[in-house]
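Example 3.2
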Amino acid sequence: MFTKFGAGLMLAAASLTLAVSSTAVAKPYKGGELYTPQGYLHGRIEVRMRMARGSGILSTFFTYKDGSELSGAFWEEIDIEVFGKDNARSWQSNIITGMGTRVTSEQVHTADASLADGYHTYTLEWTPEYVAWSFDGREVRRTTGAQVATLTNPQGLRMNLWSSDVVEWVGAFDDSVLPQHQFVNWIKYYRYNNGAFELAWQDDFDSLDGARWSKADWTFDGNRVDFDPQNVTVKDGTLVLSLTREGQVGFNGAVPRDEDTGPGAGAGGAGAATTTSSG
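Structure, written as tokens:
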């Protein structure tokens, strides 16, 4: 995730520089990112995730047009970002588009309980007419109009766990909570075909499909972490993204069980999310 900002701050994490290899930076903290080199134009994506807790930390799923960060490129991105601050009870939906000064349309949604205490199903629907976000089967936001119309190119699917240095947005970073982990039980991609969504593939993460996924090894301005491939692991049918100190990468613990793997009700006792505007 390259450009980030909070309630009205309009701050960019990497809008002025390219992502660079983490081996050239060697930051003291390491995160994890998994992405598809292949892009997808429109569709429905459902992801079953249990997020990380801790101020300054972000657990995400998003779509991103490869090369958006390059000079002279038009940015295209659709976000789901869970804040670790305040007991991980809120998340942000967002669309980012444009060249130079970018157009953003973020909203913040608050759950009944911590999103780090159970798995939930996060859904993005992207069509030529609208983008919609759902939480545990309930739509919480739908947007139409000019910004949606500018999303014209295929976008890759990405998940990452990282720490922004924009304190006003994510809170002050507390490294005493490390290590933290984001758990992904499954992901489903439905292609968009003549007004309908058709299941194209599902990944249950029984193993890591190298033909579909790649591990990031870069960082960007505004990010406290390097993305280290060792912080992307698969264990017990679950994808694990980790946020650790340097020298403590990887995941060796027990994967928390998903009590409900269906796309309806979420686990952990949290109910539906409510929506508030940010900015």
